[in-house]
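Task: sequence design from structure.
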């Protein structure tokens, strides 16, 4: 039973490559507040964070990369081949992660919390869960995902999959099993059915699940911004195809699959579709991408409406920073971005490792990064 009064907690686990993060994002679309415990473990050992010096003291400076950060790949190779080293690492990291999870869960305004952790069942976090959800995928699908999405060699992928406990062990402890093997829609149907069946009905209509913030009334010449849902995939694809300048076409199925990675904000002007922006939150960092606008709409109003709603939702998810990847035709509108509190940045000027990693993962040659810090009271901040 959860220790966070008035909240329903879903513990989400599954072996590598089974789609835990996709299911967490689906639950976030339904209004849950998602906590990625594995990402918090990375934050806990960043340079200056509470776990950094204990790791260096325990394993030596050879685990550091050229930039002075702990080389997680090097550390991973050590601990996955040495059970004693893994125990030492977990003794350092797990208390810090538990502390951060507790802090985020207490501060969250949402009534449903989902904690994603690959070692949920082996940790003390499971004692605070009202239900345990497990994702499953056949080993050949796990391997294919690791090769495609994480760019592992097939040999490395097979080794990582075979090194983990049998999936049946997690399934035996599950309240809900999500078979994440087919399409996004198939997985979405399973998640939605389990949500409606298992989450208390009084908590299913949380503000995060239902809010559609109006930046202005829908009078002529004014703008409405709302959160897109998977059911809006065809409309979103149509907006992208109308206003995309590079000629690339997307389908409803493309957009539907994207909901496993991000959310979308839809802009309406004069009661018709006028723009869209992709948006995701990972590791307390908001990232806005895929900005498409009708050139007939006043650009300052359109950008402001989308960014204000993105920031509102991001703060609701306790984000520390906002990274907006702006296409070239909008990047030169510096007065608009400055008025919203953003400044252009190079990756190496971002002072927090999690911010740098988010920017590195998302950057493209055709966009400019604009940055704004949203919170000063960071989780697992340097000491």
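Answer:
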């Amino acid at each position: 039973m959860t220790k966070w009064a008035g909240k329903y907690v879903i513990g989400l686990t599954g072996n590598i490559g089974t789609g835990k993060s996709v299911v967490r994002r689906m639950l976030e679309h339904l209004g849950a507040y998602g906590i990625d415990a594995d990402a918090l473990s990375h934050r806990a050992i960043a340079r200056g964070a509470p776990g950094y010096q204990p790791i260096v003291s325990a394993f030596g400076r050879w685990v550091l990369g050229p930039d002075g950060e702990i080389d997680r790949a090097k550390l991973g190779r050590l601990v996955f081949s040495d059970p004693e080293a893994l125990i030492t690492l977990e003794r350092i990291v797990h208390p810090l992660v538990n502390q951060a999870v507790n802090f985020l869960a207490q501060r969250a305004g949402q009534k449903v919390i989902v904690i994603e952790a690959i070692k949920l069942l082996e940790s003390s976090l499971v004692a605070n869960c009202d239900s345990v959800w497990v994702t499953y995928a056949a080993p050949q699908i796990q391997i294919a995902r690791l090769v495609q999405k994480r760019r592992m060699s097939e040999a490395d992928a097979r080794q990582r999959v075979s090194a983990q406990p049998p999936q049946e062990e997690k399934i035996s402890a599950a309240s809900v099993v999500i078979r994440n093997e087919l399409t996004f829609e198939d997985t979405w149907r399973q998640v939605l059915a389990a949500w409606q069946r298992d989450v208390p009905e009084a908590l299913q209509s949380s503000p995060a699940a239902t809010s559609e913030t109006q930046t202005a009334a829908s009078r002529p010449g004014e703008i409405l911004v709302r959160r897109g849902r998977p059911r809006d995939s065809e409309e979103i694809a149509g907006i992208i195809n109308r206003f995309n300048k590079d000629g690339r076409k997307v389908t409803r199925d493309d957009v539907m699959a994207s909901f496993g990675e991000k959310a979308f904000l839809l802009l309406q002007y004069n009661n018709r579709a006028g723009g869209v922006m992709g948006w995701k939150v990972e590791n307390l960092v908001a990232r806005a991408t895929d900005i498409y606008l009708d050139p007939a709409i006043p650009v300052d109003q359109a950008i402001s409406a989308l960014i204000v709603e993105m920031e509102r939702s991001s703060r609701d998810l306790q984000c520390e920073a906002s990274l907006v990847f702006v296409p070239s035709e909008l990047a030169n509108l510096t007065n608009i971005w400055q008025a919203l509190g953003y400044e252009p940045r190079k990756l190496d000027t971002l002072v927090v490792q999690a911010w740098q990693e988010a920017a590195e993962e998302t950057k493209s040659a055709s966009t400019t990064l604009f940055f704004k810090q949203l919170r000063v009271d960071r989780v697992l901040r340097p000491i």
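The domain at 8-204 is CATH 3.40.50.300 (Rossmann fold).
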